Amino acid sequence: MTEADAYDILSDTILAVLIGSAPILGVALVVGLIIAFFQALTQIQEMTLTFVPKIAAIFVVLLIATPLIYSTVKGLSDKVFDLIASGSV
């Protein structure tokens, strides 16, 4: 296994983590900004107003994005296991 192979595995791993976490983090960011703007406009400073919608949106997106996350992680693990089985690692 050369340094280039190790670099490829690490870059694929980082890409898989980014692809798997992007939908959830994106929705949390958008919902948080919408709630923050709503609170700034109405001057309602209720603490549960920030958490409940954000958690609900995250769970919905997690249910929707689970196949994407699974396929990303499965593709990465298949690639790494193929490298191990071929004796490259």
UniProtKB/TrEMBL annotation:
It is found in: Cell membrane. It is a multi-pass membrane protein. One of its GO terms (biological process) is protein secretion. Keywords: Cell membrane, Cell projection, Cilium, Flagellum, Membrane, Transmembrane, Transmembrane helix. The chain crosses the membrane at residues 14-39, 51-70. PANTHER family: FLAGELLAR BIOSYNTHETIC PROTEIN FLIQ. Belongs to the FliQ/MopD/SpaQ family. This is Flagellar biosynthesis protein FliQ. It comes from Primorskyibacter flagellatus. The gene is fliQ.
